[in-house]
Amino acid sequence: MSGLSIDRISMRFDLPNGSSVQALKDVSLDLAAGELLSVLGPSGCGKTTLLNIVAGFLAPTSGKIQMNGHAVTGPGAERGMVFQQGALFEWMDVRDNVSFGPRMAGKRERHWAEHVDHLLDVVGLRDFKAKAVYELSGGMQQRVALARCLANDPDVILMDEPLGALDALTREKMQSLVLKLWKETGKTVILITHSVEEALLLGERLLVMAPRPGRIHREYRLPFADLGVAEDLRAVKKHPDFARTREEILGMIWDMEEEIMGRTETTQ
Ligand SMILES: Nc1ncnc2c1ncn2[C@@H]1O[C@H](COP(=O)(O)OP(=O)(O)OP(=O)(O)O)[C@@H](O)[C@H]1O
Ligand SMILES: [Mg+2]
């Protein structure tokens, strides 16, 4: 079976003081190859935990997870991760960062050079390949991170707030780039974001998670990612359904936050 299958995943963190946190409870999800899923939810609802379990960095307390029909038991090259920021190798130039995966896999330069140059072109950094990481802007660094992930040719790209640290304009350009890469490469993508607009623009599927315990609250199937491949993202945002769904989700998350605050106040 191709794609990702998450079957009743639960995750409990046992703390040194004897208490525990139920970070995820009974989360099930099937993602077909080539789908783009965005994940939203209040802080602490288990988004990063879920992504870390899919990446194989964490083993769930219970439940099963399969990738292309094989059980996930640890990290693997078919699942690539793009972090929020700061995950580049500062001591390497741009091209060495992007070619890191193929080089670590023992591939000769002639086998990866063309692909790496193509990826640098796609993310608009051909003229920057000899630059050091510290010479790049935040947006450029995230484009290097995307190209580095793609150089490993993963089936699934996992992104935890990849655009969260960028200014509004750069973020918008990066959103278009993510959509373009998704359509061109046909990769499966899971993207965590705190921005409802971003989740709507990029997710053909959108998951709203709820906290305590972390679980799936609501799932949407949306037309905006497909529209955004062809249209300007600003035009997509003017779609009446876009505004309506954004308000619905904002209200949903607002209510969850209120509930958390209320609970915290009464337990103090
Ligand atoms: N290693 C850990 N040890 C103990 N508790 C943890 C650990 N990792 C996460 N948690 C707890 O699990 C819950 C979910 O955390 P997680 O980081 O997945 O949330 P999140 O949805 O990504 O939040 P945010 O939006 O703030 O990034 C939180 O209550 C957190 O405190
Ligand atoms: Mg997180």
Automatic annotation (TrEMBL):
Superkingdom assignment: Bacteria
Which PROSITE patterns is this protein grouped with?
ABC_TRANSPORTER_1 (PS00211), ABC_TRANSPORTER_2 (PS50893)
Q: Would the keyword Transport turn up in this protein's UniProt record?
A: yes
Q: Which SMART domains match?
A: AAA
Keywords, alphabetical: ATP-binding, Cell inner membrane, Cell membrane, Membrane, Nucleotide-binding, Translocase, Transport
Keyword RNA-binding present in the record's keywords: the answer is no
- Entry-linked Pfam families: ABC_tran
GO terms (molecular function) for this protein are: ATP binding; ATP hydrolysis activity
Query: Residue limits of the ABC transporter domain?
Result: 4-236
Which InterPro entries has this protein been placed in? AAA+_ATPase, ABC_transporter-like_ATP-bd, ABC_transporter-like_CS, ABC_transporter_ATP-bind, P-loop_NTPase
Check the record and name the CDD domains matching this protein.
Answer: ABC_NrtD_SsuB_transporters
Q: Which PANTHER family match?
A: TAURINE IMPORT ATP-BINDING PROTEIN TAUB (PTHR42788:SF18), TAURINE IMPORT ATP-BINDING PROTEIN-RELATED (PTHR42788)
Which protein family is named in the record? Belongs to the ABC transporter superfamily.
Could you identify this protein by its name? Taurine transport system ATP-binding protein
